[in-house]
Amino acid sequence: MSRVLLVDDEPSVRAALKELVQGRGWEPVLACSASEALEQLERADVLVTDFSMPEMDGLALLQAVRERDEWLPVILLTAHGSERLAVRAMKAGAYEYVPKPFDVDELALAIGRALEARLLRQRNRQLTVEHAIGRRLVFESANMRQVLAATARVAAREITVLVCGETGTGKELIGTLLHALSKRAAGPLVRFNCSAIPAELAEAELFGHVRGAFTGAVQARPGFFAQADGGTLVLDEVGELPLGIQAKLLRALQEGEIQPVGSGRVERVDVRIVACTHRDLRADVQAGRFREDLYYRLAVVELTVPPLRDRREDIPALAHEFALRYAERFGSEDVRLAPALIERLVEADWPGNVRQLENVVARMVALSGGGEIGPDAFEATSVPADRPAAVARGGEETRTLREQLDELERAVIARTMAAVRGNQSEAARRLGISRNTLTERLRRYELVTDAVEGAAATAGAVR
Hints:
Blueprint: E1 3-7, H1 11-23, E2 27-31, H2 34-39, E3 46-50, H3 58-68, E4 74-78, H4 83-91, E5 96-99, H5 104-133, H6 142-155, E6 161-164, H7 171-180, E7 189-193, H8 199-207, H9 224-227, E8 232-236, H10 243-255, E9 257-258, E10 267-268, E11 272-277, H11 281-286, H12 292-298, E12 301-304, H13 315-330, E13 336-337, H14 339-347, H15 353-367, E14 372-373, H16 375-381, H17 389-394, H18 401-419, H19 424-431, H20 435-444, H21 449-462
Parallel strand pairs: 1-2, 1-3, 3-4, 4-5, 6-11, 6-12, 7-8, 8-11, 13-14
Antiparallel strand pairs: 9-10
Pfam families: AAA_lid_14, HTH_8, Response_reg, Sigma54_activat
Domain Sigma-54 factor interaction: 137-366
Keywords: ATP-binding, DNA-binding, Nucleotide-binding, Phosphoprotein, Transcription, Transcription regulation, Two-component regulatory system
């Protein structure tokens, strides 16, 4: 439901506006002052405000709105004699003005046009973003819409951003968007996983090293800062960095300078930092595990990606998107998710968030024979109770993406080999790979005859 923010200091006018908005099927959001309106701005799809108000008039409110959301339509209600001021407001970016006392139908028509314009702008912007990042943005929830709108606003500004959220929520997508929508989009986008590198190697990986700097350094190598020069460096799980490296990272942020390991030379770099973490860095600062000065340097703007349990309305769209993606990848035909399965997915707990949902849908598609997939397939792919607690908490958090994809590829090949009764030429044709590639995969995954027969029985049971 579209939300209309109504701003007027007179209770009777607010009541009349509320009745108008509700009568057209929109949701009213009321504010008695400009300052109160700014506090509720993220809830609005269009703003209707009186021009003459104490403290901050409609023109000043319009200017404040434009600093926060340049695309939000603003409709001004102007009293007799203030038409000249209204024209100034139109030049400043107001969508339209309606004279008071307002005609109900005229104002409703203006709001309807503004909402249509808002929707069109959002869709055009989304298509532009999707083209830039090479993938679709799938969301229905209001809180994800707010996160993505804030991301778009922040992207164009040369500031450091801290992206917070549980593991698997999509922090890496926000990092990609911040780069794609920035002035650095033509430059490199480089990622560094702070938790994947041993502490003793983290400095060399970030800042580079010269030949002979340490055992095994047979040649000089540029670090991730140098690789990201002119672009964006995304620091995944920045809270895992050792304190010693944190101090050097702080210097790089403050001075724009790095010093490769083993070198006495300081190098200038032009890098925008986007830091991501699932940790509570404020608590880590209090506990002495994270530098306070570095935290404030990273969190110039802080964006929080909500967990999947707080945006369940996104689950159906995400599930259908993943099903289409993996059906195409695995060569499955006419894959559909049954309504009963969608209901089960929406009701389920997702401690591993979007990443876990993607893994589950991919596995169901891999083990299906095409056609409609029902709720029984979800039960068959759920995490067993006797799996380690670390896996149960996050679905597949303890396994790498490569390991998970290998498992899915093995299942698809086994199912295809069973369907063609071991005919490798036909299997290679259906999978869209060469006979030599298929032979290599069969050897890698140890898909000997008895294993293929077992996979065929499993696939038949799932169907």
